[in-house]
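S2.1 Query sequence (ABC transporter ATP-binding protein)
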Amino acid sequence: MKNILSVEKIEKYYGNKDNVTKAIDSISFKVDEGEFVGIMGPSGSGKTTLLNCISTIDNVTTGKIIINNSDITRLKSKALDKFRQNELGFIFQDFNLLDTLTSYENIALSLTIKGEKSSEIDGKIKSVAKYLNIEPELNKYPYQMSGGQKQRVASARAIVTDPSLVLADEPTGALDSKAARLLLEKLESLNKDLKTTILMVTHDAFTASYAHRILFIKDGKIFSEVVRGKDTRKEFFNKIIEVITLLGGDDNVFQNSCK
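Output structure tokens follow.
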């Protein structure tokens, strides 16, 4: 199986010599093509910093991050911008849609930035919109849509460029339970049907139960790993809760239950 992401002994420090904070402490792991991996941990554990480094938003202090055979820790500004456009898709908690553009235009923008031929853009948008059930929303502006609809538009924007890796940062954090379930089912389908490789940060056990493997972060290190295997989602959810209890993590993870 092809390796998509390889994180090799990365460390991240903040501050100066008089006041240094070690946010990431020698973390290593791999994600293969077609995997759906979740990252969990209590507040301040380093999970968001880890995602920021993988997404090229932040730089590591030491170590390597290799995505689709490219060491992103060595790429310079212009090369990094091009890499981001071609290889990564992003789903944010707060959607990050442009209010002055329709859903169609928001999705098209990522293709335009990538340099796709104008003759191919329309077909790609309509194809991904049909898959995510957002065809009726294509001509709407963000203020005309629900949170769930906006997040599915954001998901369409993330995958329409066919990236090597989709990075999701608390994708259900701003959604109600019904919209969250619908989005997670769509992400699960993207992973299963289109072999989309997904790395998702979440504090919520219900959301995490849709992944196939969970990495638990504590104090900047990998604390534990849980693999779903042949477990049902409910069984996997219960395993996640057991690790969270050991972690002594956020109370918020208990607010949802697997139904």
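The longest strand covers residues 3-16. The domain at 3-248 is CATH 3.40.50.300 (Rossmann fold).
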